[in-house]
């Protein structure tokens, strides 16, 4: 699914549907691996502003901790913790990439000059 999203075959909504489906069930290592695989194949477009609310909700649900031990509920072992940390690091990196892209876009728009022949007589 992540590769299909990367190739722009499926929308972000389908990615989040799969992720939340995996979150709903029992907290097992194979489900965490499936979430990791899905996200590794996706790209930073998953962090665009229109998807940010769902991504934040997913991250919040994934980062729930066990009240007694204080460990992540999805990461009771060292291997699971490493995968979980890689998911969080990847999402954090995507958010940085999107912030940089946004800044570059704003700078281009701000510095864009309208050529005199492009504006009508009222705008000159």
Question: Would you mind describing this structure in some detail?
Answer:
- With 124 residues, this protein is mainly alpha-helical.
- The chain has one domain.
- It has five helices and no strands.
- Helix 3 runs parallel beside helix 5.
- The N and C termini lie far apart (50 Å).
- The mean pLDDT is 88.
Low-confidence stretches: none
Number of helices: 5
Rg: 20 Å
Q: Major sheet, described briefly? A: none
Q: List the helices and strands in order.
A: HHHHH
Oligomer class: single chain
Overall structural domain count? 1
Structural class: mainly alpha
Shape: elongated
Work out the number of β strands: 0
Percentage of residues assigned to helices: 55-70%
Average of pLDDT: 88
Task: Classify the beta-strand content into a percent band.
Answer: under 5%
Measured between the Cα atoms of the first and last residue, the distance is 50 Å
Short account of what is shown:
This protein is mainly alpha-helical. Helix content is 61%, strand content 0%.
């Amino acid at each position: 699914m992540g590769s299909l999203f990367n190739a722009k075959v499926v929308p972000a909504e389908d990615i989040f549907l799969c992720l939340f489906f995996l979150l709903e069930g029992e907290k097992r290592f194979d489900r965490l691996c499936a979430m990791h695989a899905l996200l590794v194949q996706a790209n930073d477009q998953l962090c665009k502003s229109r998807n940010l609310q769902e991504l934040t909700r997913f991250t919040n649900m994934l980062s729930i901790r066990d009240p007694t031990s204080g460990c992540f509920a999805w990461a009771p072992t060292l291997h699971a913790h490493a995968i979980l940390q890689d998911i969080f690091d990847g999402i954090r990196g995507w958010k940085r990439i999107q912030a940089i892209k946004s800044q570059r876009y704003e700078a281009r728009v701000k510095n864009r000059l309208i050529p005199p022949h492009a504006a009508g007589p009222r705008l000159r």
